[in-house]
Write the structure tokens for this entry.
Amino acid sequence: MTQALIVYSTRNGETKKLAEIIAEGLRFSAISVSLKDVAEIKRETDLEGYDIYVFGSSTYHGEMMNRMKTFLFLAERAELKNKIGGSFGSFGWSGEAAERIFDTMKNIYCMNMVSTPLMLKASGVDGGIKVAQAYGKELAAKVE
Ligand SMILES: Cc1cc2nc3c(=O)[nH]c(=O)nc-3n(C[C@H](O)[C@H](O)[C@H](O)COP(=O)(O)O)c2cc1C
């Protein structure tokens, strides 16, 4: 069975909600999903054994959360080349975090990325639930 890992960093829980809805979209496509707070990832071997990786953080002061920055340095040492990837994050007005994570996954880890990062203010507005589920399905559709 295809395995996906979603790692999120959140302050007030909105980005965790997005992670849970992306997971639903993946599961609709018969993909097994592990959902982890970034604090649960202690070493690069914790990233072994997955086919799809989705990393997310909310944006504060124009940046991703510090925990996600530290995690991205750890993930550099994992074997992520050509793995399927996507990024996401809840935001208020500028939403840099999801874009910066996406760029790192694409340019540093050389992953097989979906078209864009998923940026949503909250799951409960602007049809966020459907959009986040669709993102999970888009990730699943990249599996050959
Ligand atoms: C002090 C503070 C700074 C923020 N800075 C930004 C910002 O620079 N850009 C942005 O898009 N949103 C910003 N936000 C809004 C958060 O990203 C938004 O509330 C988001 O939903 C929080 O998600 P979380 O619950 O997953 O942490 C800021 C919020 C606070 C409280």
Remarks:
- The mean pLDDT is 97.
